[in-house]
Structures are given as structure tokens and as C-alpha cells.
User: What shape does this take?
Amino acid sequence: GENVEQHPSTLSVQEGDSAVIKCTYSDSASNYFPWYKQELGKRPQLIIDIRSNVGEKKDQRIAVTLNKTAKHFSLHITETQPEDSAVYFCAADTGTASKLTFGTGTRLQVML
Amino acid sequence: GAVVSQHPSRVICKSGTSVKIECRSLDFQATTMFWYRQFPKQSLMLMATSNEGSKATYEQGVEKDKFLINHASLTLSTLTVTSAHPEDSSFYICSARDRITMGEQYFGPGTRLTVT
Assistant: This one.
């Protein structure tokens, strides 16, 4: 089955700096890669996603890149703000199985 | 946007009793719903895939007789934790995928189960 690894597990940045979170996946059949933000005790919220026919996608301060050959994808947050502090999860979906395999999560702390 | 609700949001039960958690898609139809369990400071672990009108597909290591899943309609799936034990205490989250778009999964707000 699919295995998703995520790094780093914790990340502290100064407000205004950029944050990068990286994930690798094992199943070459995976074709959908969402990123979720989860605040304590809340549901995961989709913040951006990318499909395997696209290499990069951007939405304001958030971008995701995908390298299908290397089987890794990354989340980039620019101009970080305190409200970006949360746990971020990457995930991979093979489509055929129609189920998400989540990474282990990254706790992002944006310091004033 | 698509909304998924869960009920109850919190439940406390005694060891040995059963607890039912409901997951509803409010404004779309979901052929498939998913049930996850999340322990503190850990990731979401898929427990089972709930298919409308058929048996659920359980992930390896998840006891199907302990975690009963019923997906009786295109908008409702239920998870029943039977003979609950303290180690079953966790955050249970469901998600649903729109039958038409088959796009992103929409997550419910979660149910915090505490077994005493």
C-alpha cells in the first residue's frame, strides 16, 4: 500500500519568513496530493491540492510543487503569519483505491 | 461548499458499552465515506471505507466486529464502537467524497470519544 513520509515534524519560523514542508510517497499510481491544515481539536481543512498532471500550483501565499519522477511534493508558505500556526498534513490518493494516506504531520509555529 | 456533520461531537461512555457516531453529508450525496481515528499529536489513520449499500472495507489491523460501519443511504454513515475500552478513546473523524465530482474529501468536525 501507499506510504507517505513527511518532514520536518516541527517547524518554527519568524513572522514574514517562508516555510517549506516536504513529503515523499511510495505508490507511483498516486495521482492526487492534497494538503490539510488542522488546528487543535478541529477538522482538517483542505488548503491546496495538486494532481499528477501538474507540476506546480499556487494560491496566494501558498504553493505546492510536485515531482512525480522523484515521488515527492512540497508545500510552500510565504510571508507567514501567526494564524498560519497549526499542524499541516500532506496526503496521497491513488484514485483507484479512492482513499487518502496521510503523512505524519508538521507542527508549524510562526513566531512574532 | 460541501458540509459534513458528525454527531455527537463529544461522548463519554463506560467500559463495555457501545457508542454510535453518525456522519452526514448535508448538501451532497456520498457514495463513499471514510472513517479515521486520530490519537493526540498523531496523524489521521484510516480505519475503513464505507460504501453505500455494501459492506465496509476495513484497513489492516482494524477489527470489523468491534467497529461496526453502516452506510444505509447516500448521506449517512454510522460507526459503532462496540464493547468500548479505554484504549478506544480517541478523536474519530469521518469524511465524504461527492458522488458527482469525485473530488476532494470533505471532513466532519470529529467526535471525541472518552471511555472510562
Observations:
- The two ends of chain A are 41 Å apart (CA to CA).
- The interface with chain B takes residues 34, 41-46, 49, 89, 98-105 of chain A (CB under 8 Å).
- The mean pLDDT of chain A is 94.
- Residues 33 and 56 of chain A are 11 Å apart (CA to CA).
